[in-house]
Amino acid sequence: MKVGIIGFGKTGKAVASVLLESKQTKLQWVVRRSRRLEHRSVPEFFGVESDEPGQIYSKEEFSAAELFSKFPVDAVIDFSSDEGIDYYGDAAADCGVAIVSAISNYPKATLRRLHKLSKRTVVMHSPNITVGINFLLLAAKILQTIAPHTDVEIVEEHFKQKKEVSGTAKIIARTLGMEEAEIKSVRAGGIIGVHEILFGFPYQTVRLKHESITREAFGNGVLFAVENLKGKPKGFYSMEDLLLPYFKLHSGAAC
After folding, report:
1. Which residues contact 254 (CB under 8 A, 6 or more apart)?
2. What sign does the dihedral 138-139-143-148 (CA atoms) show?
């Protein structure tokens, strides 16, 4: 599958490195706001050998329509900002290019626009596209449905300098119908990111825990998304939609 990336910050770079290593995808290009690095290739930037073009362009060089025409892709991966969709959204829909967005804080108007675009092409949006976090969210929802009156605590741990409550913890709270004020935060050392959901039963405790090691985890999530979006009809999808089929386990044969 040919893909292009919008955004080349810390996370975009980590995702690009994963896509370059994968046999599932072929990285055609990266578009960024800055003209710095323009016309360099991603493989050359990382100092690796690759037959994938991965050319770096600025938004000023091509319109999105020109970009999709000159360098066609099957999917565009967005790790830019909540304004990135303004650059490529309509052009992607016109060309039938799938949109995979990992922007965490879209305004409501932009989310409505994404849903509108999904009537013309495949659109998937996930505020945190890691497979682990989305598995944790889905498992927590299932357990809460099984035991709705269980005590639930959300704990998030991050590096000492991080002041605000993590966006992922807020998503977990919303998913479980809890208030953001109930989230417990720990700040210490250089912790990249730990999220834990504790279910306190009367006679047992269940802990669902996810720990981020590097940003490359977002790249694994992108690979999972593009692979599972193949052949999907036009529409709006979430990571939950893509994960749910994997929860349908086959029971063993009866004795």
Report:
1. none
2. negative
Return the closest-CA partner of residue 43 out of 31, 58, 28: 28
Q: Burial-class residue 255 by CB neighbours within 10 Å (0-12, 13-18, 19+).
A: exposed
pLDDT at 249 over 70: no
Catalytic residue among 2, 116, 141, 162: 162
202 Cβ contact list (under 8 Å, min separation 6): none
Q: Where are the alpha helices (DSSP H) in the chain?
A: 10-21, 42-46, 64-70, 84-95, 108-117, 131-146, 167-175, 216-229, 239-243
In the predicted structure, residue 174 carries a pLDDT above the cut 80: yes
Count CB neighbours of 96 within 10 A. Answer: 12
Active site residue 162: yes
Residue of 158, 170, 195, 210 marked catalytic: 158
Percentage of the chain lying above the pLDDT 70 cut: 97
* Reported pTM: 0.91
d(CA 15, CA 20): 9
CB 180 within 8 A of CB 225: no
Q: How far apart are CA 1 and CA 228, in angstroms?
A: 12
